[in-house]
Amino acid sequence: MKNIGLLFAVLGSGVTISFLVMVNLVTNSTYLWFIYPVPLLLMLPIGLYSFFEQKHTLFSLIGSIVFLIQLVTINLIHTPSYPWFLYALGPIMMWPILSVLGKRNKNVFVASSMSMLFILYYVVLNFYISPGYLWCIFPAFAILWWPLSLYHVKKKSYFAFSVNATILMSVFFICINVLFSPNTIWAVYPIFAVLWWPLSMYFYYYKRKLNY
């Protein structure tokens, strides 16, 4: 049954891709819009095969290559002078790497190491492509939640997690405020809201636990 489904997916994707390419070239050959749906159609039979054979790493590897080729192609066609595909390279490459690591993703050391490499990549990219705009703090802020949450979940230190997370978010808001709108002090407002997280943890959970 799965062979029939896989064959149907291969034939269906092949016919659809051929049809889209033909329509594109016949109607408007100057704008190659077929490059947008083709990767998704290619991933359909690959995804089914990987699902049936339990080869998730293979799917992530092929998927990352396919989508990276698509982004590079679009980049070269429309804006060859600006390599914006590099912005998406980090998350795309993380997909097969995390798939290969498997259960080791739950290791705090692995999460911390991968996060540092991820941050380093975007710091270098930031200063290489757009040194006048410090945007690397945004992916850094996002990826730091991975090792931070893993560490505290393993330790079951949920109150400490709320404190450290509040510090992380506060530093993030302050950095954005100082870097992008230094004349308007607005960071105090989200920080005030975030402070209720550790306060509520302390008064309604941690302190009650100590009393009992």
Automatic annotation (TrEMBL):
Q: Membrane-crossing residues?
A: 7-25, 31-51, 58-78, 84-101, 108-126, 132-151, 158-180, 186-206
- Keyword Aminoacyl-tRNA synthetase among UniProt keywords: no
Does the record's keyword annotation contain Ligase? no
**Source organism:** Gracilibacillus halotolerans
The UniProt keyword set, sorted, is:
Membrane, Transmembrane, Transmembrane helix
Name of the featured protein: Uncharacterized protein
